[in-house]
Amino acid sequence: MAKIRVGRVGEQLKKELSQMIQSELKDPRIGFVTVTGVEVTNDLSQATVYLSVLGDDEQKSNTLKALAKANGYLRSELGKRVRLRHTPVLIFKFDSSIEYGSRIEKILGEIQDGE
Question: 40 falls in which pLDDT band (50, 70, 90)?
């Protein structure tokens, strides 16, 4: 039963964080960011937020710095929007699976063109 709740809380956090990052954060360092997933620990104390950022490595590092700066704001807003006893600590990480998938797609396209 607890795993179902953890999954629901993770999905709710993903939805709220996506909306807040896209519409409410006005930091120019934040580029085109997509929240690809949120993993929440079983005790709901930490939430690892996986991000996909469009751009080069400098854009990614700037986005990570800006999100680290806005961490307190994001956490307090989550506390207001999602009714939990304790708001989880947010940890931001990059999700490289989209880049990896597009790289494989490119390689497969090159192989198919070669035949």
Answer: very high
Q: Is the dihedral of CA 108, 110, 113, 115 positive or negative?
A: negative
Structure tokens at 114: 């070669």
DSSP 45: S
HEC assignment per residue over 71-107:
HHHHHHHHHHHCCCCCCCEEEEEECCHHHHHHHHHHH
Q: Distance (Å, rounded) from C-alpha 27 to C-alpha 107?
A: 36
Lookup result for tokens 């960011």: 33
Indicate if the pLDDT at residue 4 is higher than 80.
yes
Nearest CA among 33, 74, 66 for reference residue 50? 33
Q: List, for residues 42-87, the tens digit of each pLDDT value.
A: 998 999 999 988 888 888 889 889 999 999 999 999 988 888 888 8
